[in-house]
Amino acid sequence: MESILATLQQGLPVLVGQFAATLALLGIGMGCYIALTPFNEWRLVQEGNTAAGVVVAGTLVALAMPLAATLATSVLVLDIVLWGLVALVIQLATFVLATTLLRGLRAMIEGGNVAAALVLAGIQIAIALLNAGAMAG
């Protein structure tokens, strides 16, 4: 029992630090995403726009996947932060590219086009899976 408590006492601060760094990166990623989007997701979600909800949920998952891979493969918080920033840049670039390819996305999302939202979320999540795999090496 003493060894379990000693392990917990030693490991818990590391876990908390790494988790906090990853949560901060997720927050930074969402903040950058919101700054990049041509529509106000939160207003649309509050108004009950399902398409906007799908896009926000897909973005959260897509940003979290490579961050989770970085968290799983890194020991140092600095390593998590550096690779996490790389992962976020890749994911945000994916969003910019996808919105360029999906002409009229703003009007579609604002109009509640769930099909367009699912395509965008699918693109983001597909790239996130590849990004996470690459991060996990």
Describe this structure as you would to a colleague:
The chain is mainly alpha-helical and about 140 residues long. It has one domain (about 20-135). About 85% of the residues lie in helices and about 0% in strands. The chain contains six helices and no strands. It has helices at about 1-35, 40-45, 50-75, 75-100, 105-110, 115-135. α1 (about 1-35) packs parallel to α4 (about 75-100) and α4 runs antiparallel to α6 (about 115-135).
How is this structure best summarized?
This protein is mostly helical and 137 residues long.
Mean pLDDT: 93
> Could you give the count of β-strands?
0
Tally of discrete structural domains: 1
Supply the helix-strand structural class. mainly alpha
Number of helices: 6
Q: What is the string of SSEs from the N terminus onward?
A: HHHHHH
- Terminal CA distance reads 36 Å
In angstroms, what is the radius of gyration? 17 Å
- Fraction of residues in helices? over 70%
Sheet of most strands: none
Strand content: under 5%
Low-confidence stretches: none
Shape: elongated
Which secondary structure elements does this structure contain, and how are they paired or packed?
Elements lengths: L1 H35 L4 H6 L3 H24 L3 H25 L3 H6 L3 H23 L1
